[in-house]
Design brief:
The chain has 261 residues and is mainly α. Helix content is 84%, strand content 0%.
């Protein structure tokens, strides 16, 4: 059932995200084209560049808004009456929203990177036949020595990079679940008249509480220089614990304390 819910969630949200992604890539191509216009038309390039980077930033903001809106509207407002009458587990409802949110955040980052690369190569005026040899040259003369230095001086290896990527995804999961928890707290009966306001306050309170819990640890490590491996493990473990706590709190509230009035 989780797979079906996820398919429905992705299909519903794709209507909003795919045109945005297409527009972002398209604008990067148009912006690069404007760069090669005559000098008296360069103002078009300036405007298009500003719009391109504004849209890149706006894509991340839009993604955050959709993440909040989909959870709040589908599960905590009138649509919740339908969603919670479906023969599915509460965990599947939360999981489908969470997985779809992570997918769209990662997709947004990927599309933004692709758009930036298209923009840079378009401005450079290089053809594909010129780009491939140039990339090979950069890899052999620039990237390889840098990678060697990272391995020997800082201790960054391929396995650690994979772990860092996993830690980043776990951090993202914890962040999204923190939003879910705050919204779930905001809809509890004592706060029913001002759900959005109390959800914001709940998020702030959770954030402050986490910082207070982490402060003693910060003092303990202030006099040492932690390694990249140590910091990566710390981020991975701490955010993993937070993700589990946020999930359990959200699950409990939606399962036992749901208030759709």
């Amino acid at each position: 059932m989780l797979a079906k819910l996820l398919k429905y969630e992705l299909k519903s949200t794709a209507r909003s995200f795919l045109p945005l992604y297409g527009g972002l890539v398209g604008l990067s191509i148009i912006t690069a084209f404007f760069y090669h216009l005559q000098e008296n038309m360069q103002w078009l390039f300036g405007i298009a560049t500003a719009l391109l980077f504004a849209l890149m930033f706006g894509t991340m903001v839009f993604t955050l808004v959709v993440i909040i809106q989909r959870f709040y509207n589908n599960l905590l407002k009138d649509e919740g009456y339908l969603m919670f009458t479906l023969p599915v587990k509460t965990g599947s409802l939360i999981g489908s929203k969470l997985i779809a949110s992570v997918i769209w955040v990662l997709a947004g980052i990927l599309v933004a990177c692709i758009s930036f690369i298209v923009f840079m190569f378009g401005v450079s005026g290089l053809s594909i036949s010129e780009i491939v040899p140039m990339l090979k040259d950069v890899f052999s003369h620039e990237f390889a020595p840098l990678w060697y230095a990272l391995q020997n001086n800082i201790g960054i290896k391929f396995g650690l990079i994979i772990e860092m990527l996993i830690a980043a995804i776990v951090y993202l999961v914890a962040f999204i679940l923190q939003l879910y928890t705050a919204m779930s707290i905001g809809q509890l009966p004592p706060f029913a008249k001002h759900k959005v306001g109390f959800a914001v306050l709940a998020y702030i309170a959770i954030y402050v509480l986490i910082q207070m819990l982490l402060t003693p640890f910060g003092f303990m490590t202030a006099n040492i220089t932690p390694s990249v491996q140590f910091l990566t493990n710390l981020i991975l473990i701490s955010n993993g614990i937070l993700a589990v706590v946020f999930y359990l709190v959200t699950y409990f509230i939606l399962k036992k304390k749901l208030n759709l009035e």
